[in-house]
């Protein structure tokens, strides 16, 4: 995953708006820059694929409309967040922008605090998507894992216990996969939080306890008396695959 400053492209032909946006984004610590039209945007993306974290896109631009630019970006960048900033307030314009692959639409004039909040939100969502993609790719490569009466299918996100199939969510699968990778180790809640959850998001350690309770329902014959996913008093948890051994 990319680290450090988030790179934001502003596609805007009105210099005053472009400069104001760039200034405000830079003040928030983003690496923001401006391109004035579609052709320069598309050739930039051609030369620097995957380099952007967010695009702020005007609709009324010389030569090529924002809609066309949006559609072209989507042909190569499937999850790059795109937020349209436009003076057009009609529902049809918004709908068309979304049909072209825009994630958000803000009408001009806009309030900077709301824009910044939307920017943060889109960037965080993008990072979650990238992380989920990476974790899915890792799971695709994993063989099924067997312990006790349980079979874990990493590809299908399933746990099969005594012939009963449980469907797991992405985060549940990530957590179970993490326990399996660290079998027999005592894992503190803070370590689990750091390794499995995104530390940029506020997650209480109680969340881990709730997730462990859910995992126990899938993997334990008696969730109230766990044999595999053991609580370690004052610390966290320990996954024990081989109970008899
Ligand atoms: Ca314009």
Secondary structure tally: strands: 12
Bound molecules: calcium ion
Under the CATH scheme, the architecture of the largest domain is 3-Layer(aba) Sandwich
State the fourth-level CATH superfamily of the largest domain: Response regulator
List SSEs in N-to-C order.
EHEHEHEHEHEEEEHEHHEE
Q: Share of helix among residues? A: 40-55%
What is CATH's topology name of the largest domain? Rossmann fold
> Can you tell me the CATH class of the largest domain?
Alpha Beta
**Global shape:** elongated
As a percent range, the share of strand residues is 15-25%
Uncertain segments of ≥5 residues (pLDDT<50)? Answer: none
What does it look like?
The protein has 245 residues and is α/β, with parallel strands linked by helices. The protein has 2 domains: 7-125, Response regulator (Rossmann fold, 3-Layer(aba) Sandwich); 140-239, Arc Repressor Mutant, subunit A. Helix content is 44%, strand content 20%. The protein has 8 helices and 12 strands. The strands form 3 sheets. A 5-stranded parallel beta sheet has the order 2-1-3-4-5, sandwiched between helices. A 4-stranded antiparallel beta sheet has the order 6-7-8-9, with no helix packed on it. A 3-stranded antiparallel beta sheet has the order 10-12-11. It is elongated, with a radius of gyration of 23 Å. The mean pLDDT is 91. Calcium ion (CA) is lined by residues 13-14, 58, 60-61.
């Amino acid at each position: 995953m990319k680290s450090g400053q988030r790179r934001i492209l502003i596609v805007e032909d009105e210099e005053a708006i472009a400069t104001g946006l760039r200034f405000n984004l830079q003040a928030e610590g983003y690496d923001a820059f401006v391109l004035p039209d579609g052709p320069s945007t598309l050739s930039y993306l051609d030369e620097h694929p995957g380099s952007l974290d967010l695009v702020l896109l005007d609709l009324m631009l010389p030569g090529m409309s924002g809609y066309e630019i949006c559609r072209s970006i989507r042909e190569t960048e499937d999850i790059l967040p795109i937020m349209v900033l436009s003076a057009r307030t009609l529902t049809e314009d918004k709908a068309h922008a979304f049909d072209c692959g825009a994630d958000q639409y803000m009408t001009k004039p806009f309030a900077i605090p709301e824009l910044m909040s939307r920017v943060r939100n889109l960037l965080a969502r993008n990072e979650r998507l990238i992380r989920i993609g990476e974790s899915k790719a890792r799971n695709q490569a994993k063989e099924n894992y067997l312990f006790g009466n349980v079979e874990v299918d990493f590809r299908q996100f399933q746990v099969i216990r005594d012939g009963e199939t449980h469907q797991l969510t992405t985060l549940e699968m990530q957590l179970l996969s993490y326990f399996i990778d660290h079998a027999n180790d005592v894992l503190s809640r803070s370590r689990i939080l750091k390794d499995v959850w995104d530390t940029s998001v506020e997650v209480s350690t109680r969340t881990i306890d709730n997730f462990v309770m859910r995992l126990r329902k899938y993997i334990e014959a008696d969730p109230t008396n766990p044999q595999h996913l053991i609580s370690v008093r004052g610390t966290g948890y320990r996954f024990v695959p081989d109970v008899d051994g």
